Amino acid sequence: MVLLGVCAAITLAVVFTFAVVGKATANGFAEFQHGVRALWPGRSPRFSLSRAAERAIAVTVLAAEAATAVALLLTLIAPGAARPAFAAAAALLTVFVAAQAATLARGEKNAPCACFGRSATPVGPVTLARDAALLAVALLGLLAPPPDGSAMEIVAALAGFVLGLLVVAVEDIVALFSPGFARRD
């Protein structure tokens, strides 16, 4: 169970790190801010967001993702950080899942995800499933005992790294096997 926690921490840290790096560029941040606007549930003038509010939300999410990635990495050397780090990851992912589910429930099919900065992929079943799976990983991490320094934790960390990379690439992997995928030679 300890190894599951290590694997979960690294998987989530990789995903949050890619999200932060993708949003940290000027274009990535602009796309993400547009995504905040598209995912915001209030479409009426009474509940709409100002540009300043969109920017504030985008900056807050970016900072929370960065802090969570660092906290998850710290769990490897400071086991006491595990519960708060996984709780922060679960809280962020709960918000992401709820926002995507609400967007899909409203019937919006072209709301940009911008989960990793610049992305042409709209919010859809794949992005929702990915974030729901990551939420499950965070919850499993909450249940796992903290790292104890065993040598097998290195293997679990490596597995978490590979899994994190696969999660980041899941939209591309799904596109490869979807009808209409055109090979570029």
Produce the secondary structure layout.
Elements lengths: L1 H23 L1 H14 L11 H24 L7 H24 L19 H19 L8 H17 L1 H7 L9
Helix pairs in contact: 1-3, 1-5, 1-6, 2-3, 3-4, 4-5
Care to describe what's here?
The chain is an all-alpha fold. It has one domain. It is 69% helix and 0% strand. The protein is built from seven helices and no strands. It has helices spanning 2-24, 26-39, 51-74, 82-105, 125-143, 152-168, 170-176. Helix 1 (2-24) runs antiparallel to helix 3 (51-74) and helix 3 runs antiparallel to helix 4. The model is unreliable at 181-185 (pLDDT under 50).
Feature tags:
185 residues, mainly alpha, 7 helices, disordered C terminus
Gyration radius, to the nearest Å?
A: 17 Å
Q: Level of helix content?
A: 55-70%
Oligomer: single chain
Tell me about the biggest sheet? none
How many discrete structural domains?
1
Poorly predicted ranges: 181-185
Mean pLDDT: 86
| DSSP strand content | under 5%
Helical run tally: 7
Shape: globular
Termini separation: 44 Å
Report the structural category: mainly alpha
**Helix and strand run:** HHHHHHH
Number of strands: 0
